[in-house]
Amino acid sequence: MKSLIMILLMLVAVTPVLAQNAADNYYDPWEMAKAREALKAEHGNQINTLILGERLEYHSNHGDSLMIWQAQAWVGGDVQKLWLKTEGEFDIEDGEFEEVELQALYSQAVSPFWDLQVGIRHDFDPEPTRTYAVLGAQGLAPYWFELDGQLMLSDEGDLSIRLEAEYEFRISQRIMLQPRLELNGSFSDDDDISVGSGLSTAAAGLRLRYEISREFAPYVGVSWNRSFGNTDDFVRAKGQESDHVSLVAGIRFWY
Amino acid sequence: MRFMTQLHQTKIRRRQFLRNTALLGGAIAFQAKLPAWAKSGRNTDLSGLKAMAGSQFALQVAATKHAIDGKQGRAVLINGQLPAPLLRWREGDALTLNVTNQLESDTSIHWHGILLPFQMDGVPGVSFPGIKPGKTFTYEFPLMQAGTYWYHSHSGLQEQLGHYGPIIIEPKDADPVAFDREYVVVLSDWTFEDPHRVYAKLKKMSDNYNFQQQTVGDFLDDAQKEGFDRALSERLMWGAMRMNPTDIADVTGATYTYLLNGHSPLENWTGLFEPGERVRLRFINAAAMSIFNVRIPGLPMTVVQADGLNVEPIETDEFQIGVAETYDVIVQPKERLAYTLMAESNDRSGFARATLTPQLGLVAPVPELRPRPTLTMKDMAMDHGTHQKDNPAAARNKLANTDHIHMGHGGVDHAVMGHDMPAMNKDQAHGHAKGPGVVGLATNPTNRLAERPHGLEDAPHRVLVYTELRALDRNPDVREPEREMELHLTSNMERYMWSFDGVKFSEVDGPIVFHDNERLRLTMVNDTMMPHPIHLHGMFFEVLTRNTADTHKPRKHTIVVKPGEKLSIDITADAVGDWAFHCHLLYHMHAGMMRVVSVREGKAPA
Fold this sequence. Notes:
The structure holds 2 protein chains of 2 kinds. Chain A is mainly beta. Chain A has 3 helices and 13 strands, in the order ααββββββββββββαβ. In chain A, strand 7 and strand 8 (159-166) form a beta hairpin. In chain B, 12% of the residues lie in helices and 32% in strands. Chain B has 9 helices and 31 strands. In chain B, the strands form 6 sheets. In chain B, strands 11-10-13-18-15-16 form a 6-stranded mixed beta sheet, with no helix packed on it. A 6-stranded mixed beta sheet of chain B has the order 22-21-24-29-26-27. A 5-stranded mixed beta sheet of chain B has the order 1-4-9-8-6, with no helix packed on it. The termini of chain B are far apart. Chains A and B meet through helix 2, strand 1, strand 4 and strand 9 of A and helix 2, helix 4 and helix 9 of B.
C-alpha cells in the first residue's frame, strides 16, 4: 500500500515535468524525482527545534525560599512553529507548587523579527485552575529589546494582558548583564485567583550570567516583585507580602 | 608524531629536482609553552599531497575517524585522505572515474569548475540521482580546459567533513606560466562538531559562534576616542536595524581549526624551495564557510591564474580567497630564508598557516592575528552620502576605495561602476522581496569590484582587487548581452534564513531558464551584510570589472559579492542541461540560497 502511494506520488511528480528536468533523459525519472524531493528538503526545508530554559532559579526572600522557572521550546520551520512556554513557582518550605503555567501556541513568523502566536494557556496552579485563549506577539524590537506580549481570555471571561521585555548588556564575550521587566494587567477582577483589575503585578530583575558555553550559563541576580491595586488588596488579605526584593541564583541553558 | 607516517611525500615538480628526504623528521621544533598561534609547530617536509594521475581513477568515499592535533573527529574522506587525493589530469584526455560509496547515506562528487556534460556534474537532484550506499557511479567526460580546480561532495553537509580534494589539469599546449616547482595549497575548515549540529545551532542562536562582539567596554573605549555622542549614535544606528556590525563570519575559530593541505597551524605544513626558483602555489579554498586573507610576509606574489583560467600576471602582497575560488600565484624567494604563509579567516578568529623554506628546521615568525574588522554603513548599502560623515570606519573605507580607483583604474566605465544598466528593468532594480526571510537593506548598492575586501582596507601593502584581474586570453564570446536579469541575495541573520530574491530553494517554483547560446547579463545585488561566494556550475562567466567592451574580462566560476554590492556578470549559455547555482557558503546553501539554472535548447522567445 505504502509503495503504491509512493508510485502514485511519483507519477504525479514526474508526469508534467518529464521534459522539464534534463537529467530525466539520462537517469531513471523516478529516481530523479526522489532526488529532487530530497534536494528541496535539504536546501531550506529543515525542521528545527529549540529548548530554552531562560530561568531556573532559586529566590531567597526573608527566608521564604522559592524555586522559579521559565522556559520555552519550539519545533518547526523558519515560518511556522509549534511553541511551548511554561513558568511557575515552587515553595520549597511548603513543598508545594504555587503557580504552574503551560502554554501551547501556534507561531507564525509575520515579519523578519516578529512572530504572531495563538493558542491556549492552562494554569495547573493556583487552584481553582484556569484555562485561557492566548493571542501574542513575540520578537525583537529595534535596539535589541526582546519582547513578548500576550492578551489572554480566561474560561471565566476575564481578559488580561502580559508584557515581558529583556535586554542584554555584553560585559565580555561570555558575561551578560540582563535587565528584565514583566508587567501583568487585567481588565476585570478574578477574586478566586487573586487578580484584580488594572495593573496587577510587576517584576523587575537584573541577572548577571557567565556563559561557560553558549548553551549553559549560571547566573546570580536580584529580583523585585510587587503587586498593585485590587490585586495588592487580595494579596495582603491572604497575609502575603506584596512588595519584596529577592536575591536569585540559577542557570540558563538551551539545546 | 603519528601524523608524519600517514603522510605521503609525493612531490610535484616540473623540472627534475631531486631532494634528499633524509632530512625528514630530523628537525622538529616544538614550543609547548607558547600560545597556539605563536607556535612554530613541527617543521617537517609535508610538501606533497598524495597524487593520482592518468585517465582512469577509482575513488572510495567512506566514513572514518580522523585526527587533527591529536584529537579524533568524525570524517567523510575519499580514499581515506584529507584532503582527498590530488587528481592530475591532462587537457584533451577522456576520463573515467569510478566513485564507490561506502557510506550509509548517499554521496556525490561535483567537479568544481570543470566544463562537462551536465549529467556528469554530480549534483544529486539536478544532474543525477546521487550515488546510493554500496554503489559505484562512473563519471565519464573529456577535458576541454587546463588549470587548478577541485572536487567535493554535493550531498548533505559532507563537504564539512573532509570530502574535498584538489585537481590540476596540465595544458595541452605550452603553459604560459613558467615555474620550477609547484605546490597545491588547499585551505579548509575543520570542526569536531557534527555539521548538522553546527547548522542547528545557527538556527537557534545565529550569533552562537561569534566571540568577537562589541562589549560595554568597547563602547566606553569608543566613547573616549570618538566622543560619547558619536559612539552612542553609532550603536543606536546598528541597534535600530537590529544588525550586528561584528557579524563577519557565521562559523568561526570558536569551533573551526583552519587547515592547510589538511594540516593545522600547529602541524605546520611545509614546502621546500631552492632560492631563486619560481614556485607556483595553487591556492584552493575548499572550506565550508571560511573566507581567507592570504599573504606571505616578505614575499610578493604574482597572481597568474584565477578559477583555473590564466590572467595577466599581477603582483600583489595579499589577496582574499572566497570559498570555492582558486588562485595560482608565483613566488620567487631569492634568499635562504623561511617564510610563513598566513591565511587568516576574514573575521580574524583563526588562521591556517604553512612554512616555505629552503631547509627543514627553518621557520619564520607567525604574525599575530590582526583586529577583527567591523561592518560599515556601506555594507548595508544605506545612503552612505549622509551616513559616512558620521562613521569614521566608513569614511576610512571610502578613502581607501578612492585610492584604489586612482591607483591604476582610471579607465573605469561608469556604466559599469554605477548601476544604471540601460536595459535594466526598473521595477526589479529596487524591488525588494519581502517576508520573514528578508531584512531588506540595500537601498543604495554600489559596485565594489575595485574595493579591497573587508578588513584589508588599511593593510599597509598591496591587496588584490577584482578589477586588477584581466584574462590572459581574449574572451571567447564578446557579444553584448541580449537579456539582463537581476537577482538579489537575501537573508535574515536573526532567523538564519538565506535565499535568492527572498525565496528559499525549497520553496522555489522551477528553474531559472537560459536559452542555448544566449548571451546574458546577470546582475547580483547583495542585500545581506555578508560576502557571498556565488558559484555557477557548468559555465564560466565574465565579470564586468572595467567596461562592458573590454575583451579580456576575468572569467570565473565563483565570485564573492560583497555586502551592499551590486555587480554584473556576463554568461554565454553554451552548456545545455540543468546546473546548480548557489552561494558556496555551505550552510547558506543548506538554508536555501540556491537555484537551478536550466539551459534549454532552442531560441529564446522574442
